[in-house]
C-alpha cells in the first residue's frame, strides 16, 4: 500500500519488449491523468468508496514506476477537484486521510527514486494538517529531478486561471508591473504549473470525454486519449496504448505546438517581468515554509 | 542491430494499424454513401427539401433525453481549400432544426474567421431559407470590419420560436482576448474571484453559454486551444474524419452519443 515500493519493478518479457518497441517513436515528455472510476470500480466489487480510492492510489504507484521506464519525465494527476468538496463529509475526510498517509509513508522512497512532488491547487482550502504534510513533501523533494509528479489537489482550472490573474493584478498594484507587461502569456507564467513542460498527452479513464475543469488553459496542443477502463483496472498495456495513440497523432500535436509557440511566444528581454516572476517564486516558497511550520 | 529490428517492428505495427484504420474508414464511408444512395432513389427527391429535413431530424431526436444548447465545431484545416463551406451551412441548418441556440465554429489558425467569413455569411444567406419562426443571428465580431456584416446580419426579434446564434472563433479569441481582461482598470486584486472573472469573461465573449458539446473533425482528439474558460464540462466527440464526408446521420449519431453521457458535476 504505497506509492513507491522498495522492490524493483518486475516486467514480463512481452512487457519489456513492448516498451522497447514503443520507445522507437516519439515519447510524450509530460503525461496527465484524470483518474476516474475508483468509485464505480468499488461499487462493482461491493466495496465501499474509500476502498476504491485506496486501490486507485495503488495504481498511481504503478504508474510512477512505468513512466520512467518508457521515458516519460513528468506526470500530472487530477486527484481531488474543488468540486469534490461537495461530496459527503465522510468521503472527503477519507480522501484527505488517505492523501496524508500516502505522502508521509513514502517520503523516503520519493527521494530514492528521485521524484519531485508538487501539489497544484488552492492549498488554502485544505485543513492545516494536510497543508503541513503537503508543504513538507514539496520542500523536501524540491531538488529531485528524475521524475516530476504534480498532484492536482483542491484544484480546478478556473480557480488556477483566476489565481494567476489575481497575482498579475497584484503585481500591477504593487508597481512591479506596468500596463505594457500585461500580455496573456504572463497568465501561463503565474500558474501553479509554471515550472512544468507542456502537457503532451492527457489520459482519462472510465469513458468520459470531457476535461472537468482540469488544465484547460495548458492543453491547446495536448492529445486527449480516453478509455472505457476504470482507473483501478488501468494496466501497463493501457498506458502503452495511450502512448501509441499519441504517436499516431504526433504530427498534428507537433503542428499545434509550433503554431502556439509562434503566436504566443514566451516573454523575453523584459527585466521587470523577470524580477516579478522571481519574486513570485520566492513568495510561494516562503508560503510553503510557513505552511510546513503549521501545527 | 537490435535497435534496427525494434525500429522495423515499430514501423510495421504503425503501418498495419494505419492500414486497418483506412480500410475501416473507407468501409464505413462506402456503407454510408451506399445507404444514402439507396435512400435517394427509393424516396423521391423531396426528401432533401427543408421541410422534410426538419421532420426527419425531429423524428430522430424525439426520444433523446437531453440536447445541447450550444455546439462548438472544431475544424482541422490548414488552408482555404480544406473548407467545404456548404457542409458548414448544413451544420447550421441541422442545428437550427434540432433546437440548438448557439453554434460556434473554430479553427485555431483563424482561416474561417479571417479569410472565409464573408463567403460563409453570403452562402448562409443564399442557401438557408428560414421559416417564419426561425431567427438566425451573428454573434459579435471582434476582428472583422463592420462593413462585412452589412446586409447579412439578422436582427434579434421577439416572436421567434427558434433562435440560433452563429459565432466564428480562432485561437486569437482563446488567448489574446485575455489581454483585455488583464488591462481592465476596474479589476482590483481584492475582488478577483472566479465569479467576477467569469462575469468579465462572459462580457468579453458576448455572453455565450458554455458549449455542452464540441464536435471535432479529424482524427486527433484535441481542443486545439478552443476557448479555455468555456470548456470545463464540454463533451468532445468526433463527428467525421473529413469535412467533406459530413452527413446528417453522423450529426444525429453524435447527438445520441451525447445524450447517453451522464453529467455528474463532481459529485
Brief sketch in words of this structure:
The complex is a heterodimer of chains A (295) and B (267). Chain A is of the alpha/beta class and 295 residues long.
* Order of neighbouring strands in the sheet with most strands of chain B: 3-4-2-1-5-6
* Model regions low in confidence, pLDDT < 50 over at least 5 residues of chain B: 142-156
Overall average pLDDT of chain A? 93
Gross geometry of chain A: globular
CATH superfamily of the largest domain in chain B: Decaprenyl diphosphate synthase-like
What is the domain total for the residues of chain B? 2
Radius of gyration of chain B: 21 Å
- Contiguous runs where pLDDT drops below 50 for at least 5 residues of chain A: none
Key traits:
heterodimer; A: 295 residues; alpha/beta; 11 helices; 49% helix; 12% strand; globular; B: 267 residues; Undecaprenyl pyrophosphate synthetase; 2 domains
Description:
- The complex is a heterodimer of chains A (295) and B (267).
- Chain A is 49% helix and 12% strand.
- With 295 residues, chain A is of the alpha/beta class.
- Chain A starts with 12 loop residues before the first helix and ends with a helix.
- Chain A has helices spanning 13-22, 38-44, 49-70, 89-105, 107-112, 128-140, 157-173, 185-189, 236-248, 250-263, 271-292; strands spanning 30-34, 74-81, 115-120, 147-155, 201-204, 223-226.
- Chain B has 267 residues and is α/β, with parallel strands linked by helices.
- Chain B has 2 domains: 1-47; 50-260, Undecaprenyl pyrophosphate synthetase (3-Layer(aba) Sandwich), CATH 3.40.1180.
- Chain B has helices at residues 2-42, 50-61, 85-97, 111-115, 117-127, 171-182, 194-204, 248-260; strands at residues 70-74, 102-106, 134-138, 162-169, 213-217, 235-240.
- The longest helix of chain B has 41 residues, at 2-42.
- Mean pLDDT of chain B is 84; it is low at 142-156.
Amino acid at each position: 500500500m504505497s506509492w513507491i515500493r522498495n522492490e524493483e519493478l518486475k516486467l514480463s518479457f512481452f512487457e519489456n519488449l513492448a516498451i522497447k518497441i514503443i520507445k522507437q517513436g516519439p515519447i510524450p515528455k509530460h503525461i496527465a491523468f484524470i483518474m476516474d472510476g475508483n468509485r464505480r470500480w468499488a461499487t462493482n466489487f461491493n466495496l465501499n468508496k474509500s476502498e476504491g480510492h485506496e486501490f486507485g492510489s495503488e495504481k498511481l504507484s504503478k504508474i510512477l514506476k512505468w513512466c520512467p521506464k518508457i521515458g516519460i519525465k513528468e506526470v500530472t494527476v487530477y486527484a481531488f477537484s474543488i468540486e469534490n468538496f461537495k461530496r459527503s463529509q465522510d468521503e472527503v475526510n477519507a480522501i484527505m486521510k488517505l492523501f496524508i498517509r500516502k505522502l508521509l509513508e513514502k517520503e523516503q522512497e520519493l527521494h530514492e527514486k528521485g521524484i519531485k512532488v508538487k501539489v497544484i491547487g488552492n492549498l488554502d482550502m485544505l485543513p492545516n494538517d494536510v497543508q503541513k504534510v503537503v508543504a513538507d513533501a514539496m520542500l523536501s523533494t524540491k531538488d529531485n529531478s528524475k521524475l516530476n509528479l504534480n498532484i492536482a489537489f483542491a484544484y480546478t482550472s478556473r480557480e488556477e486561471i483566476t489565481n494567476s490573474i489575481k497575482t498579475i493584478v497584484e503585481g500591477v498594484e504593487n508597481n512591479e508591473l506596468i500596463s505594457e507587461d500585461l500580455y496573456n502569456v504572463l497568465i501561463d507564467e503565474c500558474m501553479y504549473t509554471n515550472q512544468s513542460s507542456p502537457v503532451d498527452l492527457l489520459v482519462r479513464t472510465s469513458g468520459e470525454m470531457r476535461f472537468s475543469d482540469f488544465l484547460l488553459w495548458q492543453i491547446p496542443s495536448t492529445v486527449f486519449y480516453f478509455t472505457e477502463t476504470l482507473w483501478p483496472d488501468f494496466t501497463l498495456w493501457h498506458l502503452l496504448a495511450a502512448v501509441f495513440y499519441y504517436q499516431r497523432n504526433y504530427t498534428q500535436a507537433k503542428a499545434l505546438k509550433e503554431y502556439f509557440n509562434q503566436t504566443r511566444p514566451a516573454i523575453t528581454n523584459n527585466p521587470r517581468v523577470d524580477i516579478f516572476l522571481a519574486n513570485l517564486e520566492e513568495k510561494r516558497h516562503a508560503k510553503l515554509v510557513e505552511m510546513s511550520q503549521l501545527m | 542491430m537490435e535497435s534496427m529490428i525494434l525500429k522495423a517492428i515499430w514501423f510495421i505495427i504503425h503501418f498495419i494499424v494505419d492500414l486497418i484504420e483506412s480500410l475501416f474508414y473507407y468501409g464505413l464511408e462506402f456503407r454510408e454513401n451506399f445507404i444514402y444512395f439507396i435512400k435517394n432513389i427509393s424516396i423521391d427527391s423531396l426528401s432533401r427539401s427543408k421541410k422534410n429535413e426538419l421532420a426527419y431530424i425531429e423524428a430522430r431526436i424525439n426520444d433523446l433525453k437531453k440536447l445541447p444548447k450550444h455546439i462548438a465545431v472544431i475544424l482541422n484545416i490548414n488552408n482555404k481549400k480544406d473548407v467545404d463551406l456548404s457542409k458548414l451551412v448544413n451544420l447550421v441548418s441541422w442545428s437550427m432544426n434540432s433546437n440548438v441556440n448557439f453554434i460556434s465554429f473554430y479553427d485555431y489558425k483563424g482561416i474561417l474567421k479571417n479569410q472565409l467569413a464573408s463567403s460563409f455569411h453570403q452562402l448562409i444567406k443564399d442557401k438557408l431559407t428560414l421559416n417564419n419562426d426561425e431567427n438566425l443571428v451573428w454573434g459579435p465580431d471582434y476582428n472583422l470590419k463592420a462593413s462585412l456584416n452589412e446586409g447579412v446580419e439578422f436582427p434579434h426579434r421577439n416572436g421567434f420560436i427558434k433562435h440560433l446564434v452563429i459565432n466564428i472563433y480562432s485561437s486569437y479569441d482563446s488567448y489574446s482576448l485575455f489581454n483585455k481582461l488583464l488591462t481592465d482598470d476596474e479589476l482590483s486584486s481584492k475582488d478577483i474571484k472566479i465569479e467576477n472573472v467569469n462575469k468579465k469573461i462572459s462580457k468579453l465573449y458576448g455572453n455565450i453559454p458554455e458549449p455542452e458539446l464540441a464536435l471535432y473533425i479529424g482524427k486527433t482528439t484535441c481542443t486545439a486551444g478552443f476557448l479555455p474558460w468555456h470548456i470545463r464540462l464540454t463533451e468532445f466527440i468526433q463527428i467525421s474524419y473529413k469535412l467533406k464526408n459530413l452527413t446528417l446521420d453522423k450529426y444525429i449519431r453524435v447527438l445520441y452519443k451525447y445524450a447517453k453521457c451522464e453529467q455528474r458535476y463532481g459529485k
